[in-house]
Amino acid sequence: MDMSRVAEQGLVLLGCGKMGSAMLAGWLEHGLPTSAVWVVDPYPSDWLKAQGVNINTPLPEAPAVVLVAVKPQMMGAALPAIKALGGGVSLFVSVAAGTSIATFEALLGEGTPIVRAMPNTPAAIRQGITALIGNTNASDADIALTENLLSAIGDTVRLENEAQMDAVTGLSGSGPAYVFHLIETLAAAGQAQGLPHDLAMKLAKSTVAGAGALAMAADEDPSQLRVNVTSPNGTTQAALEVLMHEEEGFPDLLHRAVKAATERSKELSRE
Length: 271
Fold this sequence. Notes:
CATH architecture of the largest domain: 3-Layer(aba) Sandwich
Mean pLDDT: 93
Structural class: alpha/beta
Strand order of the largest sheet: 3-2-1-4-5-6-7-8
Strand content: 5-15%
CATH topology of the largest domain: Rossmann fold
Number of strands: 8
Oligomer: single chain
């Protein structure tokens, strides 16, 4: 991770909750000087205070790199603090859900380079996946810098257009909650078959975590991995006949779930 451009220009972090803290920890570990970081946050954590960065002090002059990591409902109150950096030479990166590039352009000036990104909560342990898209003012170098910054919290992917962000929200943005619910219900199903609660939960957590790690590490795609563990007329096949049922299993259920989240994301972006 190359922090040289960021160290030279200065990094302004607007909001430093769980997501911002995870990113900042990664950047500092990779050599970003604390003197090159300015944090704007009304309620700085004890951890943040102990890092030695500039907290709620006058901001650097442009050019800078500005990362917006406040909750969407706090956006209106937070942006005036960094508006002076807008207009052209400073790069703005937003990880705030539901706030469009057009909204930032209206507040910061149309000439502002802006990259919108959607991480997910495993970013807190640097196992996230972040989708990103830049506006017409964001150069290839700006996009590469953003990918470099966001690699502190996991993998990144580039989108073809901003409209895809709603589907990303429905899949990976909200997706960790679907998996947490899978763990809950898998453990409950094991308990219903006679296992103690704690044992069923440990088995469910480890099974989901292990399967995910195997899916990431294996050369085969997940459908082939599924076939690999499915013996003809065996226990896995018996379960999959239920789960893969077109009307009552995962195919219909997850399509409806992701669609519902995607549609809600579209609604929120219009509010």
